[in-house]
Amino acid sequence: MAILPPATIGILGGGQLGRMTALAARSLGYGIQVLDPDPNCSARPIVDRVVAAQFDDAHAAAVLARECDVITIEIEQIAPSALHAASEYAPVRPGANVLHVVQDRGRQKEWLAAQGMPIGPYAFVDSVADLQRAARTLGPSLFVKACHGGYDGRSQIRLDATSHLDAAFASLGSRQAVAEQGLSLALELSVLVARRVSGETIVYPPAVNHHEQQILAWSVLPGELPPDVVRKAKQMALDIAHALELEGILAVEMFLLQNGHLLVNELAPRPHNSFHATELACPTSQFEQLVRAVCDLPLGSVEPTRSAAIVNLIGDLWADGRVPDFASALKVPGTRLFLYGKTGARAGRKMGHLAAIGTSAGEALESARLAAARL
Ligand SMILES: Nc1ncnc2c1ncn2[C@@H]1O[C@H](COP(=O)(O)OP(=O)(O)OP(=O)(O)O)[C@@H](O)[C@H]1O
Ligand SMILES: [Mg+2]
What we know:
This protein is of the alpha+beta class. It has three domains: 8-92, Rossmann fold; 121-181, Dna Ligase, domain 1 (2-Layer Sandwich); 185-373, D-amino Acid Aminotransferase, Chain A, domain 1.
């Protein structure tokens, strides 16, 4: 049954994804509350209430949910106890079943393999001996990723033939990890799929993404890709959403290998950095789509009406207290600036993004990069 405005949506997490979801929810006339460890989180200026608590605080999750009609997430790392406590008061979408699959990288890979999804060669690593074995069988180029926690390349390391494996395993905290074979990528793409409680499902065309130092640097939508890659990628995302009985939105990160194979990298059942361009390219942004999906409203149109690109603004731009030249960047026609309202620009921290439109992916990206270079 549809949850209509002015009902209240609760979000577990109040970072930039929560902030932009809150803005979309506001436009639709919903109330909005978030739970976040930081009372001054990015979403703070947009929401009716911040419940300041850790993501494993079951009591606080219940306190949030008591005043909400539906609960969603902007970060996967929410403790099962907190999800359960919230679900006593309001439906949690996506549900604990989805988070159970994605929260542990190893479990996620096993689940994807069991669904028949193509993934790269990997091995579980619990010790230095395991890592040595993985380096022999899958290496020398390896990406070792802790099973729990980690985003933007944190909790993962890249190894080659010269790496010291004991030091590498120790630097991950000697935790359980997966060692993935380093793959020869032609490019990276992602697909966003939305599914509502009633079962209605819709899929955006793939975005093409470029990472630097394991952090997303830029993304274009729709990505320029061979039609058979687009078809396969969309079908994979739809199949995953159905198998998970998703309620909400899910980004599927994929690798297109130099040999033409298309593999799933990882799943994110929430708004995704690589779909920020939906705000400019599509009739329905990913944030509005999330609101529609979790409130069981008809899903919005996704076919791009033009191309758009985003360039991430990382904390390094603010080094030594300098203020980036936003005015100069905004002189580039067709650009928009999104800042996340974060205080404390640390190196590697996502502070905002610049977006631009164009008649082609290339043109949109050129404008976004030109604007970013002026900062
Ligand atoms: N097995 C691999 N082979 C080649 N490149 C890889 C591999 N694994 C990861 N990468 C590179 O590192 C990036 C980040 O990896 P991954 O998506 O696993 O980490 P993450 O910390 O979850 O990042 P994010 O939060 O940005 O999604 C990938 O997008 C890709 O550029
Ligand atoms: Mg990733």
